[in-house]
């Protein structure tokens, strides 16, 4: 005879040996061994067409005055499906089992309460499932329910509805509740069904000139806050949604919104289905502030024309809505069935930044060079919602690019900048990138779109791996934009960052020189620019050469580069990241020192501060004798610039007297060749320097004139100017370029 106080357990009685589910058998064996489970006792085994059911009595720890009516003995039926695809479901068979406790699954009215024991998905938890753990958790759940302690204070709030496998992607305005009172037209741009779950992707408005398969009209309703509690039954009609939102004017708002569609059928067709987005702020407890917001979407199965009739605002005649004099309140949408959808917001830059744990940058950035490194660094930054981008690159994607480029093989033959911008803009609700297909250098001096993009930028990021491009960006663009350069060395081992300070007190070209100086001075970097690996030819041109570089290494450096770029502080930075065979990465910083610039004889001299300091130190150490050495650096003949970045002290065979200095040559050529090798051939001999004794100014003596004549004849062979510096009394240095009449005296204090 059935117990009137209990629901009948599902299925029919069977023997345990008839069970198909292994876990059901394990639970039964455990319960039948009393010593193994002293507070839980086996009652019976049952079976249905697709499930095995174990019925047991559980004795939880219940306080003397429980918050919720949990009894000292609760009868539970645990349902195991034969295929073990779903979590074992505990059903409370007592008819009076409290429905107000948290962490219960949605049920059909008049059926046993379904207890939710875990948040973790079953496919993960099943790897650790044992009968003993299950029984302990069931008993613990009942005890916590009695004390109203099922929900931890730091645990996220319960959802209002159980959820659905069906999703819809909505524009931000509709999702966030910021949409206008006029319903929004939504066009379905993608519809995909996977594993019985439907995904609908929408965009706001109608795509111009395109055939539209399906459209919705969207309405947002912002509900009053609710205290989180048990999961609710899902409203299946407009009327039931109105009942769920008891005490609110949901139906009145819906009627007013749909009335707005009269006379606007062309823009918002009445043969579309309706999407109702409901936003419900949730409270942890009454009188507290909202902690989160549930957003749900309900799609009507009927067209809007029929929905309007079902909620009493019009009658359809000859396909046109005829407004009623007064709303027919006797019809409230009982016949308008709803289809629950789990909405998600289409991606915005702000949302992308939030998901990435990054700050939103609204600055205008220009990326120059979208090759192996550039395509991946820029894409990383864009995916995080970082900035607005102008993308500049002249090249098309070729097959040999694909193994280490952001773009895949389907883009072979397309312009890199246009394809990357297109992909990124598809990811966001509004465009984030604008492509420019062209050469930065060919645009030099013109009034092109590229020039305008560079001039209007807040930050220019050079990833071209081209010295010519880097110099052009540093010196030829009239803009306040901060400049940064990122590049990998040819074999991909090292990544290099050169970043100007915010005030541009050190330019990118000067940081390039500080980078070279670091390579010369730091023994750890002696092999940094020496080419390793085989160079590979991908075409017939003499320039069609690439090098071995694995994508995993490029991806690693692109991640580091993107993070380094968005983490820049206001100071300048010269930094390297080096990868090793054991897959470790270490960072090496090079101190960037000030440069002093001045014009001499039609040339601009840029001298690194350590050069002046070194000449001063060597002079002081050798007094009362004169001393000197060799200057090394970089010539930029296109812009008539000379960069002096270091000195080589007097060779050991030099002659030094109080009134004369003759520079020797021992070991000098080897040292210059070493410096050139360390810097990839960029740094070379620039000129000579020597000191004058105390009480002597920095003017050229007769001997100095002879030296300069020799320098002039020697440098004319290479078409380069003679350069000589004289360090004298008062820490002053005079620089001579091309002729002795073309000179400039500076003080150390100017550095």
Please, could you describe this protein's structure?
- With 751 residues, this protein is α+β, with helices and mostly antiparallel strands.
- The protein is built from 17 helices and 37 strands.
- It folds into 4 domains: 12-147, Ubiquitin Conjugating Enzyme (Roll), CATH 3.10.110; 167-346, no CATH class; 367-589, NAD(P)-binding Rossmann-like Domain (Rossmann fold), CATH 3.40.50.720; 595-750, 3-Layer(aba) Sandwich (Cytidine Deaminase, domain 2), CATH 3.40.140.10.
- Strands 20-19-18-21-22-23-26-27 form an 8-stranded mixed beta sheet, sandwiched between helices.
- Helix 12 (467-475) links the parallel strand 21 and strand 22 (482-488).
- Helix 1 packs across helix 3 (131-147) and helix 9 crosses helix 14 (551-566).
CATH topology of the largest domain: Rossmann fold
Number of helices: 17
CATH class of the largest domain: Alpha Beta
Largest sheet: 8 strands, mixed
Strand arrangement within the widest β-sheet reads 20-19-18-21-22-23-26-27
| Distance, first to last CA | 101 Å
Shape: elongated
Structural Rg: 38 Å
Quaternary structure classification = single chain
Residues in β-strands, percent? 25-35%
Low-confidence stretches: 533-545
